[in-house]
Amino acid sequence: MAFVVTPWEVSGEIDYKRLVKEFGTQELDAKLLKRLEKHTGELHHLIRRKVFFSHRDLDWFLKEYEKGNKGFLYTGRGPSGKTHLGHMIPWILTKWLAEKLKLKLYFQMTDDEKFLFKEGLSLEEATNYALENALDIIALGFTPEQLRIIIDTKMSGVMYPEAIKIAKRLTFSTTKAVFGFDNSTNVGSIFYTCMQAVPAFLPSIAAKKKLPCLIPLAIDQDPHFRVTRDIIQKVGYPKPAILHARFLPGLQSAEGKMSTTDGDPDTQVIWTTDDPKTVKKKINKYAFSGGKDTVEEHRKKGGNPDIDVAYQYLTFFEEDDKKLEQYYKDYKAGKLLSGELKTILIDKLNVCLSNHQKKREAARKNLKKYLATPEEFS
Ligand code: TYM
What we know:
Elements: E1 3-5, E2 10-12, H1 16-23, E3 26-27, H2 30-40, H3 45-48, E4 52-56, H4 58-66, E5 72-77, H5 85-101, E6 105-109, H6 111-117, H7 123-138, E7 147-151, H8 156-167, H9 172-179, H10 187-197, H11 202-207, E8 213-218, H12 222-235, E9 241-245, H13 276-286, H14 295-301, H15 309-317, H16 321-333, H17 338-363, H18 367-370
Parallel strand pairs: 5-6, 5-8, 6-7, 8-9
Antiparallel strand pairs: 1-2, 3-4, 4-9
Helix pairs in contact: 6-7, 7-17, 8-10, 10-12, 13-17, 15-17
This protein binds ligand 1.
């Protein structure tokens, strides 16, 4: 089956094992996870369930950590609209890593990227979304010392001199091969990867030493860092390590990626700002069901949790392994109906979201404290 995974398009039935081969990454194996667990004391359910399934150089990052060369975490958001649950997946794990490994997080808001790539989005709108989306990452519980948010257009004086060092070594032909650009692509888009590369070494400049960097992300963002990793040592800094997640699917299919690009987003995504009634309506109306057509048939033959969106979402949001296993068994056995499984998910998400929304609103008054300033990097 054909599928496409790039930073701008995810489509088809994604074969994650094949992606590991095609992208040249490594699967997260038991030995490496044991080594991580030595430092974290436990493994997050997103790791236990292989939502994070692949990496680049995590072994090196841990080796440096063990030597006392503690690095930093880096991740980000392209602020083209509101935050949806899919975006939160890498951020939830990043917060856990920051806490367990006591590492600082640099979070990039690429308002420049979204202005360049998205038809009809003004730069002002993208920058405003950056400030709005920032509330979602702050709400996960960081202090301003632990989280520095870099808004590209606000930090360009610091970032531009570094981005051009990458740009000088990146050819148009490489960007064409990696991203599928052609002669009609605007030149800002061709340059953009150089901006996404910068936070992988900017903290090293400020610290005046080569700090290891670990970047949790979903695998669609990997191509930017494949390119960065090929160049960064020539600029004098170590290759960043990467942790790759698979995608939280959209509402209408357990395949693919929750994303706003196909059709009406309100039939595909759950926003972090959705109220309980909206979450209930969206899941009941749109979440693809692996249940049978009639209750009798479902009771007799059972449902299919592997293609059921409600069950798949629970694998991301229900932390308790035992509960999850029970849902799986009961659904497969026909004891649990599709509507009942949806209600379990709705209740779970609404508890998570109401907690998140309170913290998100509380973050508003402190937002400024989290925004990185040029002075921090001089
Ligand atoms: P963006 O805004 O498209 O996505 C933000 C983060 O969310 C991940 N993601 C998902 N993860 C799981 N399931 C989904 N359905 C889903 N949809 C999106 C993305 O992989 C990403 O990690 N160019 C970037 C912004 C950026 C960045 C970075 C991302 C700048 N520097 C460093 C990661 C690491 C972007 O547009 O992400």
